[in-house]
UniProtKB/TrEMBL annotation:
Catalytic activity: Hydrolysis of terminal, non-reducing alpha-D-galactose residues in alpha-D-galactosides, including galactose oligosaccharides, galactomannans and galactolipids
Transmembrane segments: none
Enzyme class: hydrolase
Organism: Novosphingobium clariflavum
The name this protein goes by in its record: Alpha-galactosidase
Amino acid sequence: MELSRRSALIAAAAAPLAGMAARAVAAEAAGALPAAPGATLAPRPPMGWNSWNSFAGTITEAQALETAAIMRDRLLPLGYDVFTVDIQWYEPEASSYTYNAHPVPALDANGRLIPAPNRFPSSKGGKGFAPLAAKVHAMGMKFGIHVMRGIARLAVEQNLPILGTPYRARDIADTQSICPWNPDMYGVDMRKPGAQEYYDSLFRLYASWGVDFVKMDDMSRPYDAHAPEIEAAARAIARCGRPIVLSLSPGETPVPRGSDVRRHAQMWRISDDFWDEWPQLLAQFTRLENWSPFAGPGSWPDADMLPLGRIALGERTSRFTPDEQQTLMTLWSIARSPLIMGGDLRGIDDATLALLTNREVLAVNQHSTANRPHFLADNTRVWSARAEGSEDRYLALFNTGEAPLEVAVPLRELGLSRAAVRDLWQGRELGVSEGRVSANLRPHACALYRLKAG
């Protein structure tokens, strides 16, 4: 079964930046980035759970509530607080990772998608997601939804009215702007009267439901073609009366648009859908290195969900080896990508739970600064960061090759000559290192240390 919504561009992603992209990163790195407009909305990388990796588009209200209760008990104490229902919650017949060619989604009278009542029975009577969101909020968590760019094709076919305007769906739809992998929507022509009002009505509806987080798909690529709708969504959020974090998907968002995208969204995908294959994980190293100048409060390049534990409608457990799973968590943490678990929390195994709940590793993701890659040798990847509120350093060492390797970093790279070393995955002190820090690593394995000067 093909699980990715789009083919991963692994080979292209693994190539170094060139030309305009390299100049853009260099320009941003030359001085401090201005504060992102959404800094108070997402001061740290969001953490949570998303239904896509484990349920595709099929999740029901009962499954959502069961999963949310497990998340509350097992992950919320560690900071995972965003619970998100992914794609096609409006599709009564959603059944897998493929899409019905001619869907008949649930709509309101103004052409806005609403939860399919056969899957979300509490939505009946025009309540939408408000009852489910209220239950998630009562568990102490935030409620998120996935939406597609544009307006439902069924709304255009029925030419439904745009709320509060004299215009109708056909007046604003761009029927030439379609998603290549999903048949649900047409784009919106933002030059047309009624177009912004349509997006305003969408986010007012989401605000009335109690939505805190919106993952908006078919947005980041092609970026320039979709930029008017990205800006429209950001304007609509600013007007909706509720703070909502905007996450753009899929990727690959172009690095030269980093300064623009961080003005409108708090998260944006840097790749196509990420699944449990080593070549895709290897490609994320280069992407996160390229995007590192843009990470900061309210501005989080997103390497995608964590396909750990049981995934793919229960068909398998993650194909990543234990070493690769630790590498995944270490890379996302030291690069400060959002940590969004994708695996099925029902029956989560102890090893997966331990990966997700190591407090010292999560502190790297949530409480570090000056995160940066170092380029020292072939088949190695090295990142460092400062521990927030401390002179301590974090150091991540990776062996991305196919043979065992000693990965060593001169302490002068970190402005140190001597340091006490703590292994964060093992939770133990390793003693004092002078001159350099090194680790003998198996293929695809890593080490994550906290260094105390002196």
